[in-house]
TrEMBL record:
It comes from Mythimna separata. InterPro entries: Transposase-MT_Hybrid. It comes from the Eukaryota. This is Mos1 transposase HTH domain-containing protein.
Length: 106
């Protein structure tokens, strides 16, 4: 199972690298979608994924890898942070919201 998961992860990284490259060339998300459909056919990533990553790269993101998921132990509870595509929601924002939710539950 890990071999197929690893292959899937490598495909995602490949797609993101293509999206990043074409975004840096000044192409918009619809043009990128059309080019990727022509190359990858039925294996092409979805429109939503292309638009999200294109937006992230336009906002200045450089990494094509997922941000690591972490589990935080807080007051006896486990909270899973979500991976963020956008730099809009940084870690301090997520921590603030999580703390407010935990305080409200007590």
């Amino acid at each position: 199972m890990s071999a197929s998961l690893n292959r899937l992860d490598m495909q995602q990284v490949e797609y993101r690298a293509v999206i990043k490259f074409l975004t840096k060339q000044g192409k918009g998300p619809q043009a990128i979608l059309n080019e990727m459909k022509a190359v990858y056919g039925p294996l092409c990533p979805g429109k939503t994924m292309i638009y999200k990553w294109c937006g992230a790269f336009q906002m200045g993101r450089e990494s094509i890898e997922d941000k690591p998921r972490t589990v935080i132990h807080k007051r006896g509870r486990y909270i899973r942070e979500r991976r963020a595509l956008s730099p809009i929601f940084d870690d301090s924002f997520i921590d603030k919201i999580q703390n407010e939710l935990l305080d409200a539950e007590l």
